[in-house]
Structures are given as C-alpha cells and as structure tokens.
Design brief:
Distance between the termini: 5 Å
CATH architecture of the largest domain: 4-Layer Sandwich
Radius of gyration: 20 Å
Oligomer: single chain
CATH class of the largest domain: Alpha Beta
Length: 329
C-alpha cells in the first residue's frame, strides 16, 4: 500500500518514502520540485530540494535561496533501499519535470504541470510507460478545452503582430512572465520584430537563451522605445501606464483561458489567442488510457468530476486528491 497525501495548496506527500512533491515546508527529507512557477515552488525559500538545472536557475532568479541538488532528466537517484526517483521532461516550461518513483509497492508518476504535445520552448515530453499510480494535474478539465496545434497558434501570434505593425499599432501580448512569454517570443522570432518584455520577465529570458532557446531580438521594457516593436507583459499591467501610455496599440491575450469567449467581456482586448502550456482535456484522457495505471489521482483542477467520469467510462479507477485529501493506494 502506498499512502498518497495532498500537502498544502498544491503539494503531494508520500510519507512511507519520506518524499515530498512540490510541497511548501520541510515535511519530508527528499523534496522534488517539478518546475519554477510560484505555485509549485516552496514558500519556504530556504529548504533543500531536488530540481532540474534549468528549474534551479529559474528558482534562484526568482529569489529561492535554499540548497538545490541538481537532477538532470533521465538520471535516477536512489534515495534508500525503497525508492528510486527519476525526472522526465514535462513539456510545460523550461526545465519542467515529471517525477517518477519506483518502489517495491509500485511505480508512481507525478506530472506537476505538463503539456503534450510539448511547448516548443521546452526540452520536450517523455513519459515512462510502467505506471501503477498516476498523479496528474487537470487544470483544463472540461471538454471545451481542445488546443490547436502550436503551428496554428504561433501563426496567429505572428499574423497579429505583423498586421498590427503594418497599421502603425504596437502589438501587445498579455501573458505570464515565465513560460508563456518565452513561447510568444519564440513565435515572433521569424518576423524580426524587436520585442520588449516586462522587467520581471527579462532575466528569465536570459536563462532560456543560456539553455539554447531562440527568443529572437528582445530587450527589457523601455517606455521611450517600446513603440518601435512589440511588448510582452502580464495581464496585471493592462491598466497601468506601461500599457495605457502607448497611444496606438492592439492587445492580444495569450492563455488557455482565452478559449472561452466570455473572456472577451471580462478583458477588453483585440484578440484572444488560446495558447496554453498545460495538457488539454482530450490529451489528458488519451494519456491516461495509454498508461492504464491501477489508479489515477486528479489534482490542480477546479472540477475533477468530468475527468473522473470519462476515465471511469474507459474502465479506469480515478479519484480527486483535491477532494479526498489523502489516500492509500
């Protein structure tokens, strides 16, 4: 029996093996961090953790000061006689990893946030096939979420930017500073349009380029020269002078949530581009069927009921960790 427990806001604790996955506090000896987004990094910024090298660099750039043991993809670490842990590329953002635990009681795969097909601005996606217990995020857990291909989405981004520049407008892309911003920059690179990015995102872009990602011609936001190219900035800046001071502009919102037309009434923008770095509903169901684990645990979801229903229809046992809190597998 493997005890799998929800820990804090979004973490997972495996107490039998003294392992924590994206947990907030030092409540396990061995803590593995899936990626550098704030909701997966410990709020206690001084605790020792394992992370991939890019995740470690991104975490440090965002203020994490604890000891980080570097664990590259596909290089197993043996913690004790009971468990071996290996990171697999998750396709979500640079450095994002799924955590695979091999134990005498069965193999566990924890996805963190993930994307397949992977974001082009990552190391790709690779998944072990021998999985007994599958712990998966389900951020976009309804059938309305079916993503277009990255080729289609990147073309939407380029077309919006080029049409905006042709009409004398500054194309502004509202999106997260880490992960999505770099995807948009990679999409824009072939256009040659110079990109300025929000100050908090700029050092993260430098880390991406250090790991071989081609983000094109970019610089830190400069109010005096921003009208010469495109701007990438978080949604939170929409009503600030960073955006309002640009007289001629067109604004695109880039997010998986942009697939909901209701967002147009909630956010006054010119274009909704449904670019997501999470797995969509149908890809999630297909992956669960392919892995065919003994049990699927759903987490990081606003509503797991629909996912669980579809998985049960496919003959899989599924449960929400967000509701159950903990379980014995």
């Amino acid at each position: 029996m493997i005890r799998i427990q929800k820990h804090g806001y979004g973490g997972i604790l495996l107490p039998d093996f003294d392992v924590g996955l994206d947990i907030d506090q030092p409540d396990a000896t061995h803590i593995f961090i899936s990626h550098a987004h704030a909701d997966h990094v410990p709020r206690n910024r001084r605790i020792p953790v394992f992370a991939t090298p890019p995740t470690a660099d991104l975490m440090k750039a965002r203020g994490f000061s604890g000891k980080i043991t570097l664990l590259p993809f596909h290089e197993p670490v043996v913690l004790n006689e009971k468990v071996t842990v290996t990171f697999y590329p998750a396709g979500h953002i640079l450095g994002s990893a799924m955590t695979y635990l091999q134990t005498p009681e069965g193999n566990v795969l924890y996805t963190g946030d993930y994307r397949t097909p992977p974001s082009p601005c990552t190391e790709g996606f690779d998944c072990p096939t021998d999985v007994d217990y599958f712990i998966t995020e389900a951020t976009f857990s309804l059938p309305v979420y079916r993503w277009k291909s990255h080729d289609v989405l990147f073309n939407m981004i380029r077309t919006f930017a080029e049409d905006s520049r042709a009409s004398g407008d500054v194309p502004i892309f509202l999106t997260y500073n880490l992960g999505k911003a770099q995807e948009v920059m990679m999409a824009l690179e072939p256009t040659g349009i110079p990109v300025q990015i929000h100050g908090a995102g700029y050092p993260l872009c430098e880390i991406y380029t250090r790991y071989g990602m081609n983000l094109g011609n970019f610089s830190r936001y400069n109010r005096k020269t921003v009208a010469e190219g495109a701007l990438i900035t978080p949604l939170s800046t929409l009503d600030t002078s960073m955006v309002t001071s640009i007289r001629k502009k067109r604004i695109a919102y880039c997010s998986g949530w942009a697939s909901l037309e209701s967002r147009r009434s909630q956010i006054i923008v010119d274009k909704l581009i449904p670019l997501s770095d999470h797995i969509d509903f149908f890809e999630l169901i297909d992956l669960c069927k392919k892995l065919n684990p003994k049990k699927v645990y759903i987490t990081h979801t606003p509503n797991a009921d629909v996912v669980i229903h579809y998985l049960q229809q496919a003959g899989l046992i599924a449960e929400s960790l967000d509701i159950a809190g903990n379980d014995e597998a």
